[in-house]
Specification:
The chain contains 27 helices and 21 strands. By secondary structure, it is an alpha+beta fold. The strands form four sheets. It has a nine-stranded mixed beta sheet with strand order 9-4-3-2-5-6-8-1-10, sandwiched between helices. An eight-stranded mixed beta sheet has the order 11-18-17-16-12-13-14-19, with helices on both faces. Strands 7-15 form a two-stranded parallel ribbon.
């Protein structure tokens, strides 16, 4: 009976869809397709913007006319997007093989040549709503296969059903079974060969899981070995030494597994790139480390330095129960001191506080001798716990297993308040990140997101916990002889002067203020006096212009841990792009995996737009030197890439992506070896066309103030600079050029 019902539903869809289209509709479609191809060619050929706009307008007009003649009841959720959208996402490479004999780039034509009933089933299945609840469409697809056993479209339907089991149900076994049934009558057909390739990819996916399990296992064993070593007293010296050698051997096993897994990933990603789903499906499929909800969050994007500081101040000031903070850099200036002053106030109110600072990024506040006084002031409270990540003394012996462990850092920038409000982005804590360029010409151009969501807060807290609880963190303890050097006065002064300045009010000292407080307040007021664009805090609401969108936190461990979800996901997004890859990053030293992914996208004809620093704007001579060594190769091997660079005194520090104008990513992840292989990182991915547009527009605002690198190819096929780094020289450019010769060290930069 169920079988009969499925067949009847399929029949109704087919009959309903087989009403002949009018000649006008066919003509409109041909005009629409022709206009789109003309527009796409204009973009790919790099024609002037005014000319491209003309093609775009013609395409939009032809599209509107065509859609006006279509049945308004038809679900167009997966039709071509408005504007400059690329090909339809709903149909895979399988559909185009059957309909046109070509690859995925012909999906628009393929969709029009499919039986209408099948086309509508696939539109339903791969729409946003259909992906969330695919069972009905999958039943219809199975019914179509059974009712059309002799049709050339039956195998196509099997392929799409297999893809649905793989991507929407995580059922690789059923997907492989369906793929194995394709091509029984034509084993050498393109579709049959494609199905075999996908089966091989799914089999490799199981090996990928095995590799991850092996990595987690060897990591667990190495950590158990380190814990035994650390818990052994130096009084039992022979046992201590023996256990260190045992730990070192286990760590070497972990390092080898990590290295071998990376080699496997290069092969696996290249093999599977042609099967990458669209970017929104990739977002949906990603399983966060903690929590499961895909409910929309309130999210605000902040490029403004002052508003980013206001956001932090507002969220921390209103904290009631808990604060978790993690930073790579916290400077000893008014911003670092006033933030610590805020934490002191909250500690006195009984708020539970956890603070994690990096040993290399925050040397002045974390070093053991004459550096920890301010942190020890906070640690006097039982509700406060402060740790330093990877201090040198915990890792000296690890140098013998991997020298990079000595420089491995916690590069995360996280604030979670009351298990609901989260802040994540590229900013550290110092004047460079929170002052407007009008007040500080050397201010960084950076970016944050502020999120209101208990689920996102749980995800970020999980990322926080994984680093905070590591064995190679050092706890800031209370002073041995009690709180001898009291630092509450300067911290209180920093808090008070900052708050008065933000509210644009005159400073009023606390009652009973002592000389230490007043001296510190005078110094802080002098520092704040030049910051005229930091006085608009009154009435500020970080969520005044927030949008509602699903947000997922993507995390990565430092070198000593097994997790690297960020690189994996960014490469999946790049491989799944059908429209545009837009990236903004201050430090570009492309790793093999990232270079290959961008190269694949370029070969598919996907526009790649990169915004980064030039030698004139960079704050990192070493990373710019490696980019100087690579930039011509990037142009030569990544087709169609466009590179824009800052050229003035302002330094780019934002680390953002926009994929297909659907997914926006903001976080701490640099495009270099340190971020991919050494440091801990964290990013927020947002699925929203509205958010992606806001982020994209902001990046293009920066591009408008930038220079574009250009090259030419001589008769020998060599890349020559038309405009490049040599034309935008900064300080010590001679040293930059010298360092660029030492690419052997790029994995340490």
């Amino acid at each position: 009976m169920k079988k009969l019902f499925s067949l009847m539903l399929v029949l109704l869809l087919v009959l309903a869809g087989n009403v002949p289209a009018s000649a006008d509709a066919r003509s409109d479609y041909e005009s629409y397709l022709s206009a789109y191809n003309a527009y796409r060619n204009a973009v790919n050929e790099g024609k002037p913007a005014s000319e491209v706009q003309g093609y775009l307008n013609a395409y939009k007009a032809a599209k509107a006319l065509y859609e006006g003649n279509l049945n308004k009841a038809t679900d167009k959720a997966t039709a071509i997007e408005t504007g400059t959208a690329a090909e339809v996402d709903t149909l895979s490479e399988a559909a185009t093989f059957v309909a046109t004999g070509e690859g995925e780039r012909s999906a628009t034509v393929a969709q029009q040549q499919l039986p209408t009933g099948l086309r509508r089933i696939l539109e339903q299945l791969w729409s946003e709503k259909g992906r969330k609840d695919p069972d009905q469409a999958m039943k219809l697809l199975a019914g179509f296969i059974e009712s059309s056993a002799g049709s050339k479209y039956a195998d196509l339907a099997r392929y799409e059903l297999a893809k649905a089991y793989e991507l929407l149900k995580d059922d690789v076994k059923t997907a492989s079974t369906l793929l194995a049934q394709i091509g029984r009558n034509a084993p050498n057909s393109k579709l049959a060969l494609l199905a075999k390739e996908r089966m091989n990819y799914l089999a490799a996916g199981q090996k990928h899981i095995q590799w991850k399990n092996a990595l987690n296992s060897t990591y667990g064993v190495s950590q158990a070995g380190y814990e035994k070593y650390r818990n052994t007293s130096w009084l039992a010296f022979p046992v201590k030494v023996t256990r260190w050698f045992g730990y070192a051997g286990k760590m070497l096993d972990f390092n080898k597994t990590q290295s071998d897994f990376e080699k496997f990933q290069v092969w696996y990603e290249d093999m599977g790139s042609k099967f990458a789903p669209s970017v929104d499906v990739t977002f949906d499929k990603f399983k966060v480390a903690y929590a499961t909800s895909n409910e929309p969050s309130e999210i605000s994007l902040f490029y403004s330095n002052s508003k980013s500081w206001y956001s932090r101040w507002k969220c921390l000031e209103e904290a009631k129960s808990s604060i978790d903070i993690q930073y790579f850099i916290m400077e000893k200036d008014i911003f670092g001191y006033s933030l610590l002053g805020m934490l002191l106030k909250k500690a006195q109110q009984g708020v539970k506080i956890r603070l994690l600072l990096d040993a290399r990024g925050t040397k002045q506040l974390t070093r053991k001798l004459l550096g920890q006084d301010f942190l020890q002031e906070l640690s006097e409270f039982d509700n406060v716990e402060i740790k330093v990540f990877n201090p040198v003394h915990t890792n000296l012996l690890s140098v013998f297993t991997d020298v990079r462990k000595l420089i491995a850092s916690n590069h995360d920038k996280i604030i979670v308040v009351d298990e609901e409000i989260s802040i994540i982005g590229g900013r550290n804590v110092s004047m460079d990140y929170f002052l407007e360029p009008e007040d500080h010409p050397g201010a960084y151009r950076d970016c944050d997101v502020v999120v209101k969501s208990t689920e996102v807060a749980k995800q970020l807290d999980y990322a926080f916990d994984e680093e905070f609880s590591k064995l190679k963190t050092f706890k800031i303890a209370k002073e041995l002889w009690g709180n001898v050097d009291i630092m509450s006065d300067p911290l209180n002064a920093a808090y008070d002067t900052m708050y008065n300045h933000l509210l644009n009010e005159s400073f009023v000292a606390r009652k009973g203020a002592n000389k230490k407080y007043l001296t510190a307040a005078a110094d802080f007021m002098k520092e704040l006096s030049g910051y005229g664009h930091l006085r608009d805090f009154s009435g500020f609401d970080p969520f005044a212009s927030a949008i509602q969108a699903p947000v997922k936190i993507i995390d990565k461990h430092s070198l000593g841990g097994p997790r690297n979800d960020i690189t994996d996901q960014m490469i999946k997004y790049i491989d799944g792009c059908k429209r545009e890859v837009l990236l903004q990053n201050p430090y570009v030293v492309l790793t093999e995996r990232m270079f290959n992914a961008l190269k694949r996208a370029g070969k598919r004809g996907i526009p790649i737009i990169m915004h980064t620093n030039s030698p004139a704007s960079t704050d990192s001579l070493a990373t710019q030197a490696m980019f100087y060594a690579d930039w011509k190769r990037i142009f030569k091997e990544i087709p169609g890439i466009k590179i824009y660079v800052y050229k003035g005194s302002n330094k780019l520090h934002a680390k953002n992506w926009v994929f297909d104008r659907k997914i926006g990513v903001v976080g701490t992840y640099n495009l270099d070896y340190l971020s991919e292989q050494v440091n801990s990182e964290v990013v927020a991915a947002v699925k929203s066309a509205e958010f992606a547009k806001e982020l994209r527009d902001s990046i293009f605002d920066d591009i408008a103030k930038s220079a574009q690198y250009e090259i030419s190819i001589n008769e020998k096929g060599e890349v020559e600079s038309v405009l490049g780094p040599d034309d935008l020289q900064g300080k010590k450019f001679w040293l930059l050029k010298t360092l660029s010769k030492f690419t052997i060290f790029k994995k340490l930069i």
